[in-house]
Amino acid sequence: MYETIIIGAGIAGLTAGIYAARKKMNFLCLTKQFGGQTLESGEILNYPGIVETNGFEFNEIMRKQSEFNKIPIQEGEDVRHIEKRTGGFRVVSDRGEYHTKSIILTTGARAKRLDIPGESRLANRGVSYCAICDGPLFAGKEVAVIGGGNSALEAADYLMQIARRIYLVNIDRQFMAHEYLIDMITGQEKVKVITEANTTAILGERSVEGIEYEQYGEKKMLSVQGVFVEIGRSPNTEFLRGFVDLDIHDHVLIDCNTRTSVEGVFAAGDCSSIHEYQYTIAAGQGCTALLKVAKYLQEI
Asked: What is the mean pLDDT of the chain?
């Protein structure tokens, strides 16, 4: 019987693991892949204490830190089911089952892909899924933001002071975003709105050189140096349906103490209902979740 099991080993999970290790808790970390979304990041310029790094280097730093703290991580393990039992929980993975008094969910989220030619090949070479993370790399360049919701409009807003020109490419006729965002962004001189445009390919050899899209039955091309795919994110919470309460976007509902709807189960990072996909937020939530778990264990 573990004191806690951390599911996921991205920044939120590893932060929780560091604090659990320093508290000398009896715990375990189960994850499909070490590092989570850091493996998809390009340059990282906004993490406190690190002036400049990239996803690969940051992942290696976390690996060394987890080894230094002797965090018990079982990689390549896919958790399929959790059920509440007397005195704790039963966690079932594709490799076996475990018993624990508490759980911290840090399963993260994944950016929705366009699934078009050139997208995967040019990822981190001009194709990005996070304007806040990678926007500064495109200073003075022309970029395309693909999407028509709040995330796309917010990305365009962030890029306003960075990029030379922003093409907002929306597959629909209208934007499905807050009215104030639509009015603020679409009225900007450096933003060109392209509606009813279905992006069909991302062009370029070693880096992004443009996009291809279909509009009113006609195939068109647009020259850009960067493409921000902002069509939403999907939390990795499919196996949690029916176990904890999820919001309308399938994020785990939590309170300000990272508690979920099930007593003894906490959540942190991109799978949580905070809806802010930032490394520093994930780290803070991971720390909070572990400290609240420790307090919970003292009270039961």
From this structure: 94
